[in-house]
Amino acid sequence: MDREKLRGRDRRLLYEWQQLEARFDGRHDILCQPIRYNATGLPTAYLVNYRIKSICGVADMEHFGEHDVQNPPIFATDYQMRINLTDGYPSVDAPPVFGFLTHDDEGRPIPHPWHPNIRFFGDFAGRVCINMPDTYTDLAWAVQRVAQYLRYEIYHATNEPPYPEDQKVASWVIRQGEPNGWTVF
What we know:
By secondary structure, the protein is an alpha+beta fold. Helices cover 22% and strands 19% of the residues. Strand 1 and strand 2 form a beta hairpin.
């Protein structure tokens, strides 16, 4: 596809595709594949497979949040995140949407990350808070940042701006994860 013949949004879509391929081609821990295309044949959605050990819940969800109940993490190594590029992307009011899949095609639950910047509970489970610096930030940067989230290299668990995406998980990180060294693995 000739970049010079493309205009506006299509040029940006091609750029994003090329950046994702350049950054993650041949890696085994992060795999990116286009899953939806526009009329020009450029990707408008991606599935990102992370093969990274990360926390996917706690051992005793039945007693989650109860005082004096130790709740060690449980881990998984395979996660799937979808990136949807809205019709207005890359304008500032149409940012990309990042979300981990929480169920397979048959509706069965699958592991999704337990991280203060990724929604674990509720209707928006799987939603990722990225806080991309600006509209010029590429998707490859965001995919790499989420990998840092999964490894617990980056997280925001304190109840102050920009605020955690999941307050319950953030509370666990502060009250149990950090004190017990469970966020270092």
